């Protein structure tokens, strides 16, 4: 009670006259140290910092020489380093030119020739040139694993699992062995937004597996945030984003059906939040879809036929086969892996320990029996769908049912649906581990080791090759230019080299090769001759840069010693490259 209240009480109880008392205002209570340091001690702070540290360790030596090496190989990763650099450059200089990239000259809308990683564009705003592009890529590569861990951890915690169970789920989702075969595909590794968006949407709607829907726990702000994270995930690429979008649609239909069945109270603010968030998601989807539809009209063969899927559809044994870079399972899976076709897309082991914990979760779990059976059914369904044309009856009545949906005909790799298999296994496993963590002390101690054991399945021997430094001629060659050698698996390097000034260039690596690019590559094997020079001049090419060390042993090696007699071409020799200057057509 305050000072005035004390005086009034004295008068009423004793009848005594009040004594003049000078009551000084009480000083505000000091904030306890626990409050001041609460944020640093919060569960999510430690999980986030721990996830980053763990990612640095498991992906090592990515951050040992992040400005000189790149994880996996110098094919797709260098192209993806260029993608982030280009999107940042376009936003900084001319956002309207975003889809008109400097590569693939003279093709229009060339930035949409593959998944764009557009969601990483803010990182592309920082720094310029090849060194900055490499550093940026390596940092994002490490953070992609950390986000996958945090996203799955957050989702499983929201569903009702304990910390140890959530750590197992995070480790299983982020470090599943199949990811090692995708180390050169950053858009496939960047799946943390899927789990994080689902976690935020569940929290925003006051829903969990253990307690169901509780309207008093609805948080509209979290719901909007979940939709925004989902939109960001979609912006990283349609290969992963299209199935995610349909998964969200399915979840929304189930939620609506559940509401119609029971009619629980639904806060108006939550409905408005969902409307706003869904509008953001659909706007991003429309913005991303438009250039891809234009590309599909120009190059109809980018739509994958049913026959195209046979190359990368994994058989059932693929889900029990590890990539060769897994330290634990790589050698043991050598025989099974040799029998697979497209090994990078068909070695899809989520983890034997994760399988085991998920199986345990069927008999011992915090989830109800019905929930366990539904999760198990989801695991089976996701595997059958991911088998593509290798599914029952040739996949016609499994993957064939989703193949007819808009967007799926642009996906060449059904096996990447293993993302959903892994997430469902992780939820099942988390239920079992949370149940174990409540048992006797020896069992609890054993449960604490399980996250580390799950991470161990992702420990690897991934290579980190050095990226060649650009020859000085790249910085001065008149554009548009062509760098030789050129090829679908090597053009990422000259694309990366060009990130200092982004000149127009014929080189380009993407999900497909244009007819014009095929013709130029075939013709320039004989460069400089009359036909190849005429074709390049007609295409607007002003110079050809032949990298001396790169063409040795390739069909382009003869360009080093070729003469230009009688041709409208001038040759300039430098220590690192030979530059051919073409007169304008």
UniProtKB/TrEMBL annotation:
Transmembrane segments: 44-63, 135-156, 184-202, 244-261, 270-289, 348-367, 374-397, 417-437
Keywords tagged on the record: Membrane, Transmembrane, Transmembrane helix
Signal peptide per UniProt: none
Coiled coil location: none
Source taxon at top rank: Bacteria
Protein's name according to its UniProt entry: 4-amino-4-deoxy-L-arabinose transferase-like glycosyltransferase
The organism of origin for this protein: Asanoa iriomotensis
